[in-house]
C-alpha cells in the first residue's frame, strides 16, 4: 500500500512538472520505485512536497512583481525590440507578468557590459576579501527577504511554498556564504623543481562567463553558477529559463544592493533559439556553463 502511494505521488509530481513546462515529445521513460521495510517517515516527507493539494482553490500570492526587464550594466532596461513574453502561473495557466524578450542585440549589450566590467572595472581587481564581503551581504539580504523570494519562486515555478521557504531559499543563502568563504582561500602553489628554477602556479579569473540555467530549481541553479564565478572574480551573463525568469531578476537586484559593481552580473531573459544559442556561441564569452537534463540527452541522442 505504501509502495503504491509513494509511486503515485512521485509519478503525479513528475507528470505535473513535465506536462506544465514542456510540450516537446520525449522518449517514454518508465520509473519504478521499490519501498522496503517501514518507510512511513519517507512517505510523510514525500506527501508534504507532493501535488496532492493542487485541486484546492489557488491562492493569490501576496508579492509584488518588481523586476521584469533585462538587467544590463546594473540597470533594468527594456529589450531593444520592445518585445515581451508571458511567464505563466503553472497552477492556472494565467499570466503572472510579461517579461522583456532579449534579442541578439541585447545579448551583445550584456556581453559588452560584462567585458568592460571585467577588463576595466573594479571587480576582478578587488581583494578577495572585499569580494567576499559583498557576497556575505548578499546572503544576508536573501535571508531578510526569504518569504518574498520563496513566494515568487512558488508562484512562477509551481513548487510547494514550504519547500521553497524552508529548504531552497535558505540553501541559496548558505551557498553564497560558502562561496564567499572560498574567495580568499583560492591561491596558487610553489612547486619543487629540479635545478635552479622557481616554479609557481597562479589562479586567475577567466573573464566573462555565459551561464544558462533550467526551470526546475531556478534559485539553486543560480547560486551554483553565479556563486563560484563571482567568488573568483569573473563577470557573468546569465540566461534563466524563459519559464521561470522572475526569481533570478529579483535576487540579482539584491546582489547590486549588496554592493556588486555594475556590469558584473547581467541577466537576459528570452528563448534558447535566440539568446541561448547566441550566448553559447558568442566570441567574447570566455566560458559557457549550462545544465542539461536527462530528457535533453535523450532528445539529442547523446
Automatic annotation (TrEMBL):
Oxidoreductase among keywords: yes
Keywords of the record: NAD, Oxidoreductase
GO molecular function, one term: aldehyde dehydrogenase [NAD(P)+] activity
Keyword Endoplasmic reticulum applies: no
Residues annotated as signal peptide: none
Annotated Pfam families: Aldedh
Record-annotated Aldehyde dehydrogenase domain positions: 76-290
Family indicated by similarity: Belongs to the aldehyde dehydrogenase family.
Protein name: Aldehyde dehydrogenase domain-containing protein
Source organism of this protein record: Papaver somniferum
Amino acid at each position: 500500500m505504501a509502495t503504491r502511494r509513494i509511486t503515485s505521488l512521485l509519478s503525479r509530481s513528475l507528470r505535473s512538472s513535465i506536462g506544465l513546462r514542456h510540450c516537446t515529445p520525449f522518449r517514454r521513460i518508465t520509473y519504478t520505485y521499490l519501498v522496503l521495510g517501514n518507510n512511513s517517515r519517507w512517505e510523510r516527507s514525500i506527501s508534504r512536497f507532493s501535488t496532492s493539494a493542487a485541486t484546492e482553490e489557488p491562492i493569490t500570492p501576496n508579492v509584488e512583481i518588481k523586476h521584469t526587464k533585462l538587467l544590463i550594466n546594473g540597470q533594468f532596461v527594456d529589450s531593444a525590440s520592445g518585445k515581451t513574453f508571458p511567464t505563466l502561473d503553472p497552477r492556472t495557466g494565467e499570466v503572472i507578468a510579461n517579461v522583456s524578450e532579449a534579442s541578439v542585440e541585447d545579448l551583445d549589450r550584456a556581453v559588452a557590459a560584462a567585458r568592460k566590467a571585467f577588463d576595466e572595472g573594479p571587480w576582478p581587481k578587488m581583494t578577495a576579501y572585499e569580494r567576499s564581503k559583498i557576497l556575505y551581504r548578499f546572503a544576508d539580504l536573501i535571508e531578510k527577504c526569504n518569504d518574498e523570494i520563496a513566494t515568487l519562486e512558488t508562484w512562477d515555478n509551481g513548487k510547494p511554498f514550504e519547500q521553497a521557504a524552508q529548504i531552497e531559499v535558505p540553501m541559496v543563502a548558505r551557498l553564497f556564504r560558502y562561496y564567499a568563504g572560498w574567495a580568499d582561500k583560492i591561491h596558487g602553489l610553489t612547486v619543487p623543481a629540479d635545478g635552479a628554477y622557481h616554479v609557481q602556479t597562479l589562479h586567475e579569473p577567466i573573464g566573462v562567463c555565459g551561464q544558462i540555467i533550467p526551470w526546475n530549481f531556478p534559485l539553486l541553479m543560480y547560486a551554483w553558477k553565479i556563486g563560484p564565478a563571482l567568488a573568483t572574480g569573473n563577470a557573468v551573463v546569465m540566461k534563466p529559463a524563459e519559464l521561470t525568469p522572475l526569481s533570478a531578476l529579483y535576487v540579482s537586484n539584491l546582489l547590486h544592493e549588496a554592493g556588486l559593481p555594475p556590469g558584473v552580473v547581467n541577466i537576459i531573459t528570452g528563448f534558447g533559439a535566440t539568446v541561448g544559442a547566441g550566448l553559447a556561441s558568442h566570441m567574447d564569452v570566455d566560458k559557457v556553463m549550462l545544465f542539461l537534463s536527462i530528457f535533453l540527452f535523450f532528445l539529442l541522442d547523446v
